[in-house]
């Protein structure tokens, strides 16, 4: 096998491998949409967790405030 034939064979193999491994435009678009959907799902879960924690903190503060006001009312302060 001459160097020219070898170079031609390698070039031909590379072209065939690229053709086999490449995705169509529809497949690439579907993969991008799936990745975007997963990112949105992760962002939604993160937002829900953050808002839940903030709500729990506010409920705790309101409960402590209510207990404190009830304590003051019971001990003669109005």
- Give the amount of beta strand, in percent: under 5%
**What low-confidence regions span 5 or more consecutive residues with pLDDT below 50?**
none
- How many beta strands in the DSSP annotation? 0
Q: What would you call the quaternary organization?
A: single chain
Terminal-residue CA separation: 103 Å
The number of distinct structural domains comes to 1
- If you average the pLDDT, what whole number results? 90
Along the chain, the helix and strand elements come as HH
DSSP helical segment count: 2
Based on CA atoms alone, the radius of gyration comes out at 32 Å
Largest sheet: none
Characterize the overall form: rod-shaped
What does this structure look like?
Helices cover 88% and strands 0% of the residues. It has one domain. The model has no long low-confidence stretch (mean pLDDT 90). It has helices at residues 3-21, 25-74.
Give the helices and strands, then pairings.
Blueprint: H1 3-21, H2 25-74
Attribute tags:
78 residues, 2 helices, rod-shaped, mainly alpha
Q: Outline of this structure?
A:
This protein is mainly alpha-helical and 78 residues long. It has two helices and no strands.
């Amino acid at each position: 096998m001459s160097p020219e034939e070898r170079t031609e064979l390698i070039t031909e193999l590379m072209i065939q491998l690229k053709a086999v491994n490449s995705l169509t435009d529809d497949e690439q678009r579907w993969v991008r949409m799936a990745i975007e959907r997963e990112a949105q799902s992760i962002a939604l879960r993160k937002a829900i967790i953050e808002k839940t924690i903030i709500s729990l903190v506010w409920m705790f503060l309101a409960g402590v405030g209510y207990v404190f006001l009830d304590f003051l009312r019971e001990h003669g302060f109005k």
